[in-house]
């Protein structure tokens, strides 16, 4: 899975810890982490986003809100 995934850091609003996006044209994932947050928080967010990727959440018919509720 790691060969189809890259991670970048962006200055995001503090309330956004990060997110993942899927590019179906390239079959590739990008995890975006908030560069304003701590290393520990970014690690937690990184593993949270990997869980979404490994669970194939991008193919789910559930809403993002429902998926987040189920993952916590």
* Total of helices: 2
**Which structural category do the helix and sheet elements fall into?**
alpha+beta
Report the biggest beta sheet as strand number plus sense, adding barrel if it closes. 3 strands, mixed
Beta-strand content = 25-35%
Question: Which geometry do the CA atoms define?
Answer: globular
What is the total tally of β strands? 3
Mean pLDDT: 87
List the helices and strands and how they pair.
Blueprint: E1 5-10, E2 18-23, E3 28-34, H1 39-54, H2 64-71
Parallel strand pairs: 1-3
Antiparallel strand pairs: 2-3
Output the keywords.
26% strand; three-stranded mixed beta sheet; alpha+beta; 72 residues
Protein architecture, described:
This protein has 72 residues and is an alpha+beta fold. It is built from two helices and three strands. The protein has helices spanning 39-54, 64-71; strands at 5-10, 18-23, 28-34. The chain has a three-stranded mixed sheet, covered by helices on one side.
